[in-house]
């Protein structure tokens, strides 16, 4: 089945986000997207785009509260010995529960001034994942990886997700959250040309084709549909045998 036929079969029948988007998906044998799907309207240097710090939030307060509540339900308890968390594509806030702490919380982002301001981080790394998708961490290092409203900017997502699998501990949790807001000129074309359920399928495909993950799941945590920013989660765990 070619990409167009597959996409039409599993996505076109649903006009809004569905938590069932990733249930019983018959994935093609090969990754169904092409290089042009990961191009952006603005292909200038991402380092230049993110050079100036942006001390703003990119989703509204209700969506932030919904994400924080979700984290509180799925994160390991605060101050659990040996727990490490990586906040990928991080900035000056991570939206973790108030007072949440672990021995190691690493932020990886594009702007050092933003990362320095983030109070939850114990350390940070400045890195452009679109230029260097290799993650500078040892195998089986992290219990949780988060990514808030930034998965749509990854131009080498399979490389990044394979690296995520490598550095997660067996059974480790990866949480990709997204809304319908983004920097449109920097988001990949397959994202800007599709809708919310399609986005769940796109992120789910990253987990599936990266390998080493359990079947991905979708969750709608939108707090006030139609009245505030929507908020969606696609998550998976590293296979215990990976």
From TrEMBL:
Keyword annotations from UniProtKB, A to Z: Signal
One MF term in the entry's GO annotations: S-adenosylmethionine-dependent methyltransferase activity
Methyltransferase type domain boundaries: 106-175
Segment forming the signal sequence: 1-21
Gene3D superfamilies (alphabetical): Vaccinia Virus protein VP39 (3.40.50.150)
Descriptive protein name: Methyltransferase type 11 domain-containing protein
Species name: Gossypium raimondii (Peruvian cotton)
């Amino acid at each position: 089945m070619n990409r167009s036929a597959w996409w039409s079969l599993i996505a076109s029948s649903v006009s809004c986000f569905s938590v069932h988007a990733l249930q019983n998906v018959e994935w093609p044998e090969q990754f169904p997207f092409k290089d042009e799907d990961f191009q952006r309207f603005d292909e200038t240097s991402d380092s230049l785009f993110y050079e100036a710090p942006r001390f703003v939030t990119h989703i509204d307060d209700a969506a932030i509260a919904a994400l924080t509540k979700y984290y509180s339900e799925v994160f390991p308890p605060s101050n659990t010995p040996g727990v490490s968390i990586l906040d990928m594509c991080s900035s000056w806030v991570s939206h973790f529960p108030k007072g949440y702490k672990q021995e190691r919380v690493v932020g990886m982002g594009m702007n050092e001034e933003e990362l320095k301001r983030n109070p939850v981080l114990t350390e940070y790394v400045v890195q452009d994942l679109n230029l260097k998708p290799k993650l500078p961490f040892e195998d089986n290092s992290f219990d949780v990886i988060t990514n808030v409203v930034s998965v749509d900017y990854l131009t080498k997502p399979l490389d990044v997700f394979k690296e995520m699998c490598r550095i997660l501990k067996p059974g480790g949790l990866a949480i990709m959250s997204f809304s319908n807001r983004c920097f449109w000129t920097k988001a990949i074309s397959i994202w800007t040309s599709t809708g919310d359920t399609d986005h769940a399928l796109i992120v789910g495909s990253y987990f599936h084709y990266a390998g080493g993950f359990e079947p991905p799941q979708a969750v709608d945590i939108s707090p006030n549909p139609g009245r505030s920013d929507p908020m969606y989660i696609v998550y998976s765990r590293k296979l215990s045998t990976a």
